[in-house]
């Protein structure tokens, strides 16, 4: 691939892992919830219809315990995938597991993932210093491509 | 005689205090800190997971049968590594929520639902707790590993998953 390629390179991967580990460690009380909720609040503000997809985790009330726990699960899934960027064969297994979990949810689409990708791009620079949107996007897309395999557009 | 009684009472009190460790607010902070250090990020996590599961199957070889779907027969495969990633990711969520109790309890109930049909016995959870502690100690060193904090706090988590 040439220099303008859209692939998540080893350098991109390292950069993403560094940006991420500085904001998401288990030791930071409250930080995870704040970030995870901010992403979903942003998503719902831009795609109001998406709220309906999260009915069984109380999506109408983003401050409920059920939805907070859901937010944590989703962003924790991203955290695992970011960690696995160092081991592509295991990452692929994990992404196909996540793809199966999402295929079981009707209404979840590739466009939905594109929307939440934009939400991350708006939220992350607010919390991570020295955020690199290009490296982040290339590797974020590497992850969502695997997760959305088999989903409707 | 009085001083002997006082001494006996003191010993009893000390034993009582230390045989009855609790996962209090301070222990939760310590566990979060030590977990973050051990769990790390990126590549090192896989070694951490591998260490824990190698230990689990050494202590309980029959437990491999519970993980047939994810290649429990060979923990070196990507399928099993991905499984180990999910388990540690789940544990990471619980540890991170130790100081957000209402959300922690919601998450534990979610995990309880995922485990209720899998036939996991109390002894299995004990093996897992023990191996996780070995893994933490292995990563952060025996000089600083706080077993009195880890034991009761891991119990809070596995107790919640057992429902």
UniProtKB/TrEMBL annotation, chain A:
Keyword check for Disulfide bond: yes
Disulphides: 8-139
Family matches, as PROSITE patterns: GLOBIN
Binding site for heme b: 102
GO cellular component: a single term: hemoglobin complex
Keyword Metal-binding carried by entry: yes
Globin domain span: 7-152
Pfam families registered for this protein in UniProt: Globin
Protein family according to the UniProt entry: Belongs to the globin family.
Protein name in UniProt: Hemoglobin subunit B2
Origin species: Seepiophila jonesi
Automatic annotation (TrEMBL), chain B:
Key words, A-Z: Disulfide bond, Heme, Iron, Metal-binding, Oxygen transport, Signal, Transport
Taxonomic superkingdom: Eukaryota
A molecular function (GO) term: oxygen carrier activity
The keyword Metal-binding is assigned to this record: yes
Stretches assigned to the Globin domain: 22-163
GO CC terms: extracellular region; hemoglobin complex
Record: residues binding heme b: 115
Disulfide bridge positions per record: 23-153
Cleaved signal peptide residues: 1-19
PANTHER family, per the entry: GLOBIN-LIKE PROTEIN (PTHR47217)
Family affiliation: Belongs to the globin family.
Name the record gives this protein: Extracellular globin
The organism's taxonomic lineage, starting at the top: Eukaryota, Metazoa, Spiralia, Lophotrochozoa, Annelida
């Amino acid at each position: 691939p040439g220099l303008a390629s859209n692939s998540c390179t080893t350098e991109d991967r390292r950069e993403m892992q560094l940006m991420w580990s500085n904001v998401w460690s288990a030791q930071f009380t409250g930080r995870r919830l704040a970030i995870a909720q901010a992403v979903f609040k942003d998503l719902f503000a831009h795609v109001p219809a998406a709220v309906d997809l999260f009915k069984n985790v109380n999506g109408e009330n983003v401050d409920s315990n059920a939805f907070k726990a859901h937010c944590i699960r989703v962003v924790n899934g991203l955290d695992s995938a970011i960690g696995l960027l160092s081991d592509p064969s295991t990452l692929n297994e994990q992404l196909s597991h996540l793809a199966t979990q999402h295929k079981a949810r009707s209404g979840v689409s590739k466009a939905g993932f594109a929307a939440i990708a934009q939400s991350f791009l708006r939220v992350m620079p607010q919390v991570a210093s020295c955020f690199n949107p290009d490296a982040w996007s290339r590797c974020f897309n590497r992850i969502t491509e695997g997760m959305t395999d088999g989903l409707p557009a | 005689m009085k001083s002997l009684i006082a001494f006996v009472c003191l010993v009893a009190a000390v034993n009582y205090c230390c045989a009855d460790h609790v996962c209090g607010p301070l222990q939760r902070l310590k566990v979060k800190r030590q977990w973050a250090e051990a769990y790390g990020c990126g590549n090192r996590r896989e070694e951490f997971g591998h260490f824990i599961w190698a230990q689990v199957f050494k202590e309980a070889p029959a437990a491999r049968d519970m993980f047939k779907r994810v290649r429990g027969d060979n923990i070196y495969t990507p399928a099993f590594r991905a499984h180990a990633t999910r388990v540690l990711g789940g544990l990471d969520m619980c540890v991170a929520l130790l100081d957000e109790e209402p959300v922690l309890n919601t998450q534990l109930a979610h995990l309880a639902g995922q485990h209720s049909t899998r036939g996991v016995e109390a002894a299995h959870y004990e093996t897992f707790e023990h191996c996780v502690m070995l893994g933490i100690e292995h990563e952060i060193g025996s000089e600083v590993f706080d077993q009195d904090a880890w034991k009761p706090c891991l119990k809070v988590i596995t107790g919640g998953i057992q429902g």
